[in-house]
Amino acid sequence: MRVLVLEDEPALRESLAQRLRGEGFVVDAAADGIEGEYAGREYPLDVAIVDLGLPGRSGLEVIRAWRDAGKSFPVLVLTARDRWQQKVEALQSGADDYVTKPFQFEEVLARVQALLRRSGGWSQSLQRCGEIELDTRSQQVTVAGAPVELTAFEYRLLEYLMLRAGQVVSKTELTEKLYEQDFERDSNVIEVFVGRLRRKLDPDGTRQPIETLRGRGYRMARD
């Protein structure tokens, strides 16, 4: 999952970025509204975390610009403004949720995960595709009730495919969502990881939970 952290305070921006990376996210960071608006327009984001008090262009202006440009990724607002009118204004501008500073990282993470689930059509942390279950809170995966051990990248790959179950996901999209910008973009690497994930989820080859569509990408079976 790819997240933008748009925060002008260096220590907070770096702290959020590091902890989100530790949770398996690919993180883009920006320090002002102009840079952040550009990132939201040009990068394939899954979610953005936006401070309202930004130099160059306010967080509200950035969010409005994204929505006017047709960008629909969810936005979590960080704000030191605790008046309800300002929170309402942020939501009316196109934000999806907000957290008031000071905050605990665990709350930010929980709200980001909830926004990602909702954007993928899931209402709870436990996601099911047939016999495969994935819990985004514990990051545990089971198949027919039996636990499956995945590497961090395999887990992120499975989570992304399950959040988009029933949809075709291209190799390019997976590379952009799961790797940092400077990664050597070789689609063969994605093929290798999908193959490894298939063998762990379906060692006997009977379930075939991840379908390959030649020239188009992959599709996770919802049922």
Question: What brief labels describe this structure?
Answer:
223 residues; alpha/beta; five-stranded parallel sheet; four-stranded antiparallel sheet; 12 strands
Description:
With 223 residues, the chain is of the alpha/beta class. It has helices spanning 10-22, 33-42, 59-68, 84-92, 105-119, 152-163, 171-178, 187-201, and strands at 2-6, 26-30, 47-51, 75-79, 97-100, 126-129, 132-135, 140-143, 146-148, 168-169, 210-213, 217-220. Strand 3, helix 3 (59-68) and strand 4 form a beta-alpha-beta unit. Helix 2 packs parallel to helix 3 (59-68) and helix 6 (152-163) crosses helix 8 (187-201). The mean pLDDT is 89.
Mean of the pLDDT scores? 89
Low-confidence stretches: none
The secondary structure category is: alpha/beta
The separation of the N and C termini measures 23 Å
The Cα radius of gyration reads: 18 Å
**How many strands?**
12
Strand order of the largest sheet: 2-1-3-4-5
How many helices? The count is 8
Order of helices and strands: EHEHEHEHEHEEEEHEHHEE
Q: Strand content of the residues, in percent?
A: 15-25%
Mass-distribution shape:
elongated
- In percent, how helical is the residue content? 40-55%
Please give the largest β-sheet. Answer: 5 strands, parallel
